[in-house]
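User: I'm new to structure prediction. If I give you an amino acid sequence, what do you actually give back? Let's try with this one:
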Amino acid sequence: MKDNLNQLSAWLSYQPADFFLCTDPKNVRWLTGFSGSFAWVLMGEKVMHFITDGRYAAEGKAICSALNMHLVLLRAGAEKWPNCADKATMLIEDTVQIGARQRLQKRFENYLIQPVLSPVLQFRRVKNEAEMETMQAAQSHVDTVLNSFLQKEAYSGVTEIELAWRLEMALRDEGKYGLSFDPIVAFGANSAQAHHRPTKAKLAVGQPMLIDCGVTKNGYASDMTRMYCLQQVPNGFQADFDAVLQAQEKGIKMVKAGVKVATISKAVRADLGDREPLFSHSLGHGVGLNIHEAPSLSIRSEEVLQAREVITLEPGIYREGKWGIRIEDIVRVTPHECVVMSQTPKSLRVLGV
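Assistant: Good question. You get back a string of structure tokens that encode the predicted 3D arrangement of the chain. For your 353 residues, that looks like this:
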């Protein structure tokens, strides 16, 4: 955590400002390790303040002792903020809501308060070894659970809601893991909705099934999508599936540090050929403390991949009224290639045979 705070301090030293206020809970967690419901970090040139309330007094003291920060406890009706010089400039994250921004301006009436895109979002893109090991452990748990779970629980007549709930319980493993997001379980034509919410639709023989799920470990997320069919494959589905798989594997081969994400996205879309108009979302996204974070693998992005980023590659095609197909892996970027972290086989699996 000290290294993370040092990155922010170094960034601030190059800004025309005296302070930077970090309020986003995930950014605060990355900087300090704190995972409670309220804390802010106020970075100055000479001192770093950890601001929280009495609920977290003991935890705040431990964090400040370890990270050489100054603890500020806010008390309702008697707020004691850090003593800061007058006529200073304070940068705040642009995600701070207008009401909170107005209260800050009232408290620091002599300050020039300027919202900025948080630099922490960019710092978080590059993972250290501990972060990558944690994310790999999260993904490996999903790899261990998914196929064996579906072989047992995906049968004719089960509903999307029932299967999603049972999958959630299996993934959580009695509370050892959290969820990256509510599992997407989509049968038949419902799979043509990229972010379908499970319904009472029942699984039938010959229907394709899309499963998109992930877990968190120590706050860090995993993400994977796989396709299945129950007992038999519908006509035309295999050809679409093979096209998506081929395009995804082409994208994976292109991933390495220094490559523009738009270059990869355009190549994957080109590989889909006349199916490309059926691909309705971006190729992927960064993963970390948030399930969706920088970079976005969009054809319009100017971003370049960096070593030690963790991203997804998830091309898909969606035929309204028939089926949707998405194949998603989570990968780690290295200087010369990428390392695929998800190990569940990608070939189309036919259940119940």
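You can read the tokens as a compact description of the fold. Here is one thing that stands out. The CA atoms of residues 192 and 208 lie 10 Å apart.
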